[in-house]
Amino acid sequence: MIYLTLFWEFAKVGIFCVGGGYASMPLIQAAVVDTYRWMSLGEFVDIFTISQMTPGPIGINAATFAGMKIAGIPGAVCATVGFCTPSLILGIVLANLFFKYGDIGPIRGILNGLRPAVVALIAAAGISFVVLALWNEETLPEDLTTIDPLGVIILLVALVAVRRKIGVIKLLAATGAAGLVLGIIQQNLLG
Amino acid sequence: MSHEEMKSMASACPNFYWKLFQSTFLISAFTVGGGFVIIPLLRAKYVDEYGWLNDKETLNLVSIAQSMPGVVAVNASIILGYRMAGIRGALTALSATILPPLITLSAISCAYDWFATNPYVRYALKGMQCGATALIVNVAIDLLQKQWKKRLLWPLAIIAGTFVANFFFAVNIMLLVVIDGILGLLFLRSAEYGK
Asked: Which long-range contacts (C-beta less than 8 Å, at least 24 apart) are formed by A18-21?
């Protein structure tokens, strides 16, 4: 039964996916390409690309899209629900633990240590996002003049707007539209 | 706020489940580029707009979501939903998080070749990427300022150490979270660090 297999395989991905959505990629690949041969490696790379380009959490996008390619929309539902089931169980257990006992010493200590850690991780992610937005590469290139003028303009305007407390949805809709308009202008100027 | 207070606030809020569904749906639909983008979105909705959480609770929530396996956005929505309204809340938030990818990807898989090569799609996504970057930079600045003003040595040292390890040495995030949790357990149990 393909649906049960999908559910179970993606539940395993959910358990072993440690470190966010990107960590799920090799696990999904191992299941759908290597073990079950549901698709070729080339098709899997397409899934990876689409998952990154589409809004939404990357891991969920990948599970949904892989499930869909293998067994249509029911397959997508089974893969995604399977992927989230370990999170659901563990999330409820941990939430109980932390919210019921969060005010006693040891657990408060753990949370007091984790909050600054998350601040640091947000800052690090922020800087790599800036590099990606300005240079379209994941690490800072050696030749800094390859900077993307489109990225510079939109990012600067967006930063000013955000500091003035523009709504999130409005901001993303506006930057999407700005990217489209400036991209078309740039394309026509260059050729 | 205690667990019970959160729950009573949830039951007092008109259309609570609809609000929870709608907000997690939008957050999932607009997460561009990976887990951490969810933080500014959570903050804008639940701290600034609804007043369901404060900054500290948001960071607690993300810490827990980050330290368990799975996708951060999914984990965070499950914990948030559970925190506000028990199992029903968790299921509401979870379904709202997995629906947007299901809808967008159903549409995209019908027109895969067009989507992957279309320059206009790429331009719009590039613009949204810049928007998401501005959001995350803004949150990082706010949170760093807050921590800096407290002038507490330990949290600042954790921030610096974690940043350097993650950004310059690409140390695995899970490992860092475990180390910082242990540091907290050993040295940060006093109430002054909890503010």
From this structure: A18/B69, A18/B174, A19/B172, A19/B173, A19/B174, A20/A59, A20/B34, A20/B35, A20/B66, A20/B71, A20/B72, A20/B173, A21/A57, A21/A58, A21/A59, A21/A60, A21/A62, A21/B34, A21/B35, A21/B71, A21/B72, A21/B73
Chain B hits for A22, CB-CB cut-off 8 Å, are 34
Are B109 and A122 a contacting pair at CB < 8 A? Answer: no
- With CB atoms and an 8 Å threshold, state whether A21 touches B194: no
Inter-residue contact A39 to A33 (CB < 8 Å): yes
In Å, how far is B17's CA from the nearest CA of chain A?
18
Give the pLDDT of chain A (191 residues) as one tens digit per residue.
Answer: 899 999 999 999 888 876 666 678 888 888 898 889 998 888 888 887 777 777 788 888 889 999 998 999 999 999 999 999 999 999 999 888 887 776 677 878 888 888 898 889 888 888 888 988 898 877 788 888 889 899 999 999 999 999 998 877 788 889 999 999 999 998 888 76
Inter-residue contact A56 to B40 (CB < 8 Å): no
